[in-house]
Design a protein that fits this description.
heterodimer; A: mainly beta; 7-stranded antiparallel sheet; 6-stranded mixed sheet; 2 helices; globular; B: 14-stranded mixed sheet
Chain lengths: ~525, ~625
């Protein structure tokens, strides 16, 4: 008698589809009341998702048991939208990292609980439409290459001037540093502006929300093209022309292997004495002009006396404005090497500085930097390039944000005109509005149809009326907000309706009826 | 909006417009002694993720949750006012949504004691040993345990003294005050109590005998039966060696048998010697090369042989089946009992082929060191005992913040100063009157079981009654049959009038008896406790013409039902609609009268209260 996990759910699974552990039992045929009990745990704090309650699964005649844990996890996931305050933030409620514990039980059994904590999985507030090439595996949405997708159903989403806009993506663990590359193009296809923004790596291992307008101004552009990129491996893109110059000794160009590499001249090795208790800096300073934006690698090798603790920093300067690019605190090893990968632009810095500072140790520390190199590396695309159409809102704009079936943020601005009135039902009075959208492509019509969902409406529990209360009712499994230009949101209920299109039409239209929070009389 | 339902202190998602209608049941006059529970309509709540977490995924048939099979705390707040507090929620059904009902009132308390017996009470504060010395010490107590004089069949009049000998050590039945049992029911459940009834003289004088037998649950927890694993060889055991019995057939819930060779007592009361045990063993051995001695040994002192068959070990035995038995009194924490073998002569090799070892608590002999008195009760549920209290004194109970408030009907009817005034709240033209109460007959009887012994006291004293002058009621009915049996009275040795329950020596139970205790009188005989003549002791009686307080039902009916019976003579049961608000419901007190336009009522029921709407109220007119 034994049980083993034959298959586990995909690393990233859609929770609205079955999230299945498959068990195989052997030698259990003669056992009475044989079953496998499963308990699901939240990986972040190892708490039971069921308050200690287990679930029982019995094998079929082949000894196979299927434990679908989706309904348990789904109870912890809710669609919501929060105006991000940084380039990327974790969407805490739309995914869950989990694992299980399981145990064989039968009359008279004494088997132990098996802890599967070493195999955590992720569930996303998503449902993949059948037919699905990858089953319940969301691998198409996990950044890794230029074919991977953001969590949107729009082929070409839209973004509106003066209104917020966000985009969701899966940020898996242990990726290289990711950058959000945003390029704006005009009607003729000319690049107006490009921005590389470092994605906050501390938010990895999660579904993230990107603030598309963080740090940039939306120009009078035709489109905004967005993708996630990372620093490629060294030498993957060879530069035939140096895109930066280092004019001062001791930098020399080795020209090795075609890669534009500048190294520290060993003959001009710098040795700086750092006395205890007197932190020093500015031990190396070189002006480097970066003529092309891109990923650059800085490699430092050096040594110091034993018994000292030192801090090494790489700083960039633009004029007198200083920015720390890299810090290695508490370096205690005698011989060390550090590598700094960063995206740099000519607008970023006009010189690079390497600082060392005393932290601990008595006496004089002969601190040597024996080798320094700069190299440019390739840009590796980790997602597709998503092209947003840039729009000016017309009159009477009503901007909706909701969670699509992939668990990502979806936006649409209804403008032009709406029908508005009050609904009286039961003991409540609530404003309703019918929104219209026309000239839709098929994918836009499909995406907007996801506003119509079937969950039950329940009341928002309002204990105290504060500025954070933004709705009086919620539809189970859905959350739709009307968002103002300043990000203020009002929770609304979509009254489901049937929308029909003619597939021979080139463009389509849709009507969406929303109900605002109940009026207090 | 502004409706908040909490289950286990978690806010539940509700449908918009959810209506929670509460029915508040105050009294049901035809069901005396019953405690009425408030309840709501069936509440539908959506199966949101949050609700599924709170209800522990009960909708999933694979879930092993106990949620649908028990109740959980609930409270309901509407417009900031707690309409239901200290409720219990019951999950009735789940499908696409959940169906719940909330019970409230003293339901938490009664939920806690549901299915509990008197032997589940915590009697730690009164537990002690049982001996003539201890009995002497409690011969005249007024609370807790007591050793009253009673004709139990073994009290002896010794004409030579002249006095009555009342010794008997551990075979005399301990008694416990009725009010002590009530106290323990409340305190064991974590509640306190309040009410004038708890200082009522009659209430404080009643006591009941306990058994000499421990309850089955106590005995079962300590019993065991084990067997040897088959062949085991013991070579020349020059010191006492335990025989292994690792085939555990049964081991009581206390788990005292250690699974290998010894019965080891574990008890938090480390100084207590608290039960007596009989041990038996049958061991089949072959012995080659000598002879052995065998014993059932206690602790690590193999010279203490408890083999009753000879008083000494079975000595110099060879091959064959050997039987050992013995008893150990006052077993306590750390005591270990095992079957042992030791070389008697030669250098024997002992081969055990089959063997069994078992032990059972000895009945009928209380331990001199310590007794868990709660285990000496009969099989009586705590709820039945409380019902006896409630019926006997016509007491109504409500619960407020962990306090069970008890009032007699006499108190309720007399308390005009604290009436609720609903004069302006009545909706005119909604009144209906009924002139009889279901559950009340022209003659209403309360009774005990009749005494089985030859009786000097008529069985008529086993019952009492009140009448209602209403020809339209059914003629007669028994309203309540007590669990207790009436007791005979006897003029013992022509010297003292006392309750007679002459069961004789060592009979485990005096039966379910309830007596009044009185102080002995001057001139009544000296009674010997522990060999010392005593002139201050308690005397058990059922009825005694010299005393006001009596166990006769009529005493309780006349004392605690008279005012109420007067109101029943021309009963008017009225149904009206009132405009009650949330605050009225929040502050409603079933133990207070209601005044309305020159009339006074007891509220018997508030039907389906919904915030903001008028509600139907059932009333019983008292003035």
């Amino acid at each position: 008698m034994a049980v083993s996990v034959t298959t586990r759910p995909s690393t990233w699974s859609a929770v609205k589809n079955p999230v299945v552990y498959k068990f195989t039992s052997t030698g259990h045929g003669a056992l009475t009341n044989y079953r496998i009990q499963v308990e699901v745990f939240k990986a972040s704090d190892n708490t039971s998702l069921t308050g200690g309650v287990t679930f029982s699964f019995s094998p079929d005649s082949s000894g196979i048991s299927y434990a679908d844990v989706s309904s348990i996890i789904k109870a912890y996931l809710v669609p919501d939208w929060i105006d991000p305050s940084a380039i990327n933030e974790v969407e805490t409620d739309t995914f869950l990292k989990f694992y299980i514990k399981y145990q064989e039980l039968y009359d008279g059994s004494a088997t132990s609980v098996v802890d599967d904590v070493a195999n955590p999985r992720y569930a996303v507030f998503a449902g993949l439409q059948i037919p699905s090439t990858n089953g319940n595996n969301m691998t198409d949405y996990v950044p890794a290459s230029a074919t991977k997708q953001f969590l949107t159903l729009f082929d070409n989403p839209k973004i509106w001037h003066d209104y917020p806009s966000t985009l969701s993506f899966i940020y898996p663990d242990a990726l290289s540093l990711l950058y959000l590359l945003r390029r704006q193009y005009d009607d003729s296809g000319s690049l107006l502006n490009e921005t590389y923004s470092l994605i906050n790596v501390s938010n990895d291992d999660a579904v993230n929300r990107i603030d598309l307008l963080s740090g940039i101004t939306l120009l009078s552009a035709k489109d905004l093209r967005v993708k996630l990129i990372a620093n490629g491996s060294a030498g993957s893109e060879l530069l035939t022309n140096p895109s930066f110059t280092a004019t001062l000794s001791p930098w020399v160009n080795t020209g090795l292997g075609g890669t534009q590499t500048w190294i520290w001249d060993a003959g001009n090795q710098a040795q700086v004495s750092i006395s205890s208790g007197t932190p020093q800096s500015d031990i190396l300073r070189q002006s480097i002009t970066l003529q092309t934006a891109g990923f650059y690698r800085i490699v430092l090798n050096g040594n110091q006396a034993a018994g000292f603790t030192t801090r090494i920093q790489v700083k960039g300067f633009l004029g007198e404005v200083e920015q720390v690019i890299f810090t290695s605190e508490n370096v205690t090893t005698f011989s060390w090497s550090v590598t700094v990968n960063n995206y740099l632009t000519h607008a970023s810095f006009d010189r690079i500085q390497i600082d060392a500072a005393w932290i601990a140790g008595a006496g004089t520390n002969p601190f040597n930097i024996t080798d320094v190199s700069f190299s440019r590396t390739a840009d590796d695309s980790f997602t597709e390039e998503l092209i947003f159409g840039v729009q000016e809102p017309c009159d009477n704009p009503v901007l909706l944000v909701w969670k699509n079936s992939l668990g990502g943020d979806a936006w649409w601005l209804f403008d032009g005109g709406q029908e508005s009135g009050y609904n009286f039902s039961g003991s409540k009075k609530a404003k309703r509005m019918t929104l219209f959208a026309e000239h839709l492509t098929l994918d836009q019509w499909e995406a907007l149809n996801e506003l119509n969902t079937l969950g039950e409406v329940y009341q928002e529990n309002i204990i105290e009326l504060t500025s954070s209360v933004n709705k009086t009712a919620v539809r189970d499994g859905a959350q739709v907000y009307v968002v103002d230009a300043d990000g203020t949101k009002t929770g609304v209920i979509v009254i489901p309706s049937t929308s029909v299109i003619n597939t021979r039409d080139v463009t389509h239209s849709i009507e969406i009826e929303i109900e605002f929070p109940e009026r207090v009389e | 909006m502004k409706k908040l339902l909490y289950i286990n202190n978690e806010l539940v998602d509700l449908y918009p417009g959810t209506v929670i209608a509460q029915t508040i049941q105050a009294f049901e006059l035809g069901a005396l002694g019953s405690v009425r529970t408030n309840y709501t309509n069936q509440i539908r709540i959506p199966q949101t993720g949050h609700n599924r977490q709170i209800l522990q995924f009960s909708e999933n048939s694979k879930s092993n949750t106990a949620f649908p099979y028990t109740s959980y705390s609930a409270r309901y707040v509407e417009n900031g006012i707690e309409i239901i507090r200290n409720g219990r929620v019951i999950l009735k059904e789940s499908g696409g949504e959940y169906l719940l009902t909330i019970l409230s009132g003293p339901v938490n308390f009664f939920d806690f004691i549901a299915n509990k017996k008197l032997w589940d009470l915590d009697t730690t504060s009164i537990n002690t040993g049982w001996s003539d010395t201890i009995r002497d010490g409690i011969r005249n107590t007024t609370t807790g345990m007591v050793a009253p004089f009673v004709d139990d069949g073994i009290a002896v009049y010794n004409g030579a003294l002249p006095a009555i000998e009342h010794d008997g050590g551990v075979t005399k039945h301990p008694w416990i005050y009725y009010h002590t049992v009530i106290d323990k029911i409340f305190s064991s459940a974590g509640y306190t109590k309040s009410g004038a009834i708890f200082s009522d003289p009659a209430y404080l004088k009643m006591a009941m005998p306990l058994n000499l037998d421990f309850s089955k649950i106590f005995i079962d927890a300590k019993s065991f039966h084990v067997a040897a694993p088959g062949t085991q060889v013991i070579v020349n055991p020059t010191s006492y060696t335990d025989i292994t019995f690792n085939q555990v057939g049964s081991n009581g819930s206390d788990g005292f048998y250690n699974g290998t060779s010894a019965y080891v007592v574990s008890n938090a009361d480390t100084a207590a010697t608290y039960f007596n045990m009989a041990f038996r063993a049958a061991v089949t051995i072959t012995v080659a090369g000598g002879t052995v001695n065998m014993i059932i040994a206690r602790n690590n002192f193999p010279d203490i042989n408890i083999n009753l068959s000879s008083g000494t070990p079975i000595t110099a035995v060879g091959s064959g089946t050997h039987y050992l038995s013995g008893s150990a009194s006052g077993l306590k924490d750390g005591d270990a009992v095992s079957v042992r073998v030791i070389t008697n002569s030669g250098a024997p090799t002992v081969t055990v082929t089959t063997a069994i070892f078992e032990g059972n608590v000895i009945r009928n002999t209380l331990a001199t060191g310590y007794n868990y008195f709660n285990h000496l009760f009969d099989d009586i549920s705590q709820i039945d005992f409380l019902k006896d209290f409630s019926v006997r004194f016509n007491v109504k109970m409500i619960e407020r913040n962990g306090v069970i408030i008890c009032k007699t009907m006499n108190e309720i009817l007399a308390d005009k100063a604290n009436m609720l005034d609903w004069t302006d709240k009545q909706i005119p033209g909604t009144e209906k009157l009924r002139y009889a109460y279901s559950g009340v007959a022209q003659t209403n009887t309360f009774d005990y079981e009749s005494d089985q012994y030859t009786s000097d006291l008529s069985d008529a004293y086993a019952s009492g009654s009140f009448t209602v002058a209403n020809e339209n009621l059914s003629e007669a009915q028994t309203i309540y049959s007590s669990m207790f049996t009436m007791s005979d009275m006897i003029m013992f040795a022509n010297r003292i009038n006392v309750a007679s329950i002459p069961v004789g020596a060592s009979v485990p139970s005096l039966g379910l008896r309830l007596c009044m205790l009185r102080q002995n009188l001057s001139g009544e005989p000296t009674i010997y406790y522990n060999g010392v003549g005593r002139t201050d002791y308690k005397v058990a009686y059922f009825i005694d013409a010299r005393y006001t307080y009596s166990m006769h039902w009529q005493y309780f009916i006349d004392g605690y039902y008279a005012d109420f019976v007067t109101k029943l003579q021309k009963a008017k049961a009225i149904t009206r609609r009132y405009r009650l608000n949330d605050l009225d419901i929040h502050t409603f007190d079933q133990l207070k009268l209601v005044h309305d336009s020159g009339e006074t009522f007891i509220v018997t029921k508030i039907n389906n209260y919904v915030s903001g709407k008028s509600v139907e109220v059932e009333l019983f007119k008292v003035d």
